[in-house]
Amino acid sequence: MTMLKQILNQAGVREFGVCPMPPEDALLDCRAKSRLPENARSVIVCLFPYYSPGLEGNISRYAMVEDYHKVAREILTPACESLRQAYAAEFSWFADNSPIPEVSAAVQAGLGVQGRNGLLITPDYGTYVFLGEIITDHLFDYSAPAQGSCLGCGRCEAACPGGALCGGAVDISRCVSDISQRKGELTPSETELVRAGGLLWGCDRCQLVCPHNREVKQTHIQAFQKNIVASVAYGQIRPLCKTRAFGFRGPRVLERNYHILYGVD
Ligand code: SF4
Ligand code: SF4
Q: Could you read off the pLDDT of 32-56 as tens digits, one per residue?
């Protein structure tokens, strides 16, 4: 484990945990599945914290920073290369586009607990983390479960503008974050929910009210500390689509939301 820790720390991953492959919950069907190593035995789940203090604006916090897909690629590609050399085994990385159910695997890997808002709650960074996985045919020791729990306080459910949270389940059809990302014309009720959410992209309400997100640590990842854009003006939407996580949906989605929220360009 020490060599694994050394290699990952050097690449820029400070927090990680290991769970069995396959993990407890069923694998997801996606094209990335074809990149899984044959006879994979371990999943190394990596945390990418992105929180910086004072971030207030008109998009979700995770979208204020550099696109995490790019940041994860820049960290995990060399990490896998070093791990291949060190262990003479197969290592493939995934982030977001992953066959691994990421939150439940992170819980199994001892990185935190799952909240009633459906998100991973970590001890140091609360819910403000991205996840990535390295999957390998090498057998590593598995991590112990994390201490602590979601407080069950219900603040996330009470704050949810879409009424999407109930008993620990998220009804995606009512989640403003999901609705704000849909293409095309929104229905009148979807439009109302985007207005109620008040952001051009995403929704952070169930994170902002969570007691676990008080006094969280700032990210140590430099790429998430610079080039932060908290409030997006209409004219910034197209250029920002090249560097932010919302770029994959294209500029028209944010331009539509801008008109819903502000009415003018
Ligand atoms: S992201 Fe917003 S709409 Fe979605 S579950 Fe959380 S609070 Fe509700
Ligand atoms: S707001 Fe309360 S119930 Fe919701 S995830 Fe946080 S601790 Fe759990």
A: 999 999 999 999 999 999 999 988 9
Ligand 2 surroundings by CB, under 6 angstroms: 115-117, 150-156, 209-212
First-to-last alpha carbon distance for the chain, in angstroms, is 54
Task: Say which residue the tokens 């085994």 belong to.
Answer: 89
Alpha-carbon distances, residue 124 vs 59, 60, 68 (angstroms)? 23, 20, 19
To the nearest 5 percent, what fractions of the chain are helix, strand and coil? 40, 15, 45
Q: What is the DSSP letter of 59?
A: B
Q: Residue 214 phi/psi, 5° resolution?
A: -85, 135
202-247: pLDDT as tens digits: 999 999 999 999 999 999 999 999 999 999 999 999 999 999 999 9
Q: How many CA atoms lie within 13 A of 225 on its CB side?
A: 6
Query: Pseudo-torsion of CA 265, 252, 197, 154, nearest 10°?
Result: -160
Residue 145 preceded by cis peptide, ω within 30: no
Is-above-0.70 flag for pTM? yes
Give me the DSSP letters along 124-141.
TTBT-EEEEEEEESS-PP
CB of 161 within 6 A of ligand 1: the answer is yes
Q: Is residue 141 annotated as part of the catalytic site, yes or no?
A: no
Instruction: Yes or no: say if 28 and 107 are a contact pair by the CB < 8 Å rule.
Output: no
Choice among 96, 137, 204, 265 that is catalytic: 96
